[in-house]
Amino acid sequence: MNKKGFTLLEVMIVVIIIGILSSVALPQYLTTLEKGKSAEAISNIGSLRTSLDRYWYQNAAGTNDPDLLDIDNPNTVTNRLYQYTVTGDTCTSTARIYTIRAERIGKETDYWAQWTQTSNTEGKLTRSSKLGGPTS
Questions:
Q1: Helix, strand, coil shares of the chain as percentages rounded to 5?
Q2: Is domain 12-131 classified as CATH 3.30.700?
Q3: Ranges of each domain in the chain
Q4: Is the pTM of this model over 0.85?
């Protein structure tokens, strides 16, 4: 008699292999999704930076209030993923130093991106390790 099909052992081995592969791939997939969602933060930080610089050039002073800028406040968007804060209002008529920080809403504090303006010509974008930043 010639029977076609799979034995129970073969099916169990395939299920175990699929389980192992998915347990390895799922965390990496979720990390990749978070990195993709961080694009919202990076984009809004760039908009805030540009507007803060424009405000400084026009008024010879800085501000921590995104409502005073010539863009919509990203904290008022309905379905936003990040909360934005501007700190370090040490902008004078000759120098501007500030930090813009975006923290993921509903996640622990390991999901953030920030721009730190250290002088008129220098600044740096940093991200948490969960968003692809340095692990050290």
A1: 45, 20, 40
A2: yes
A3: 12-131
A4: no
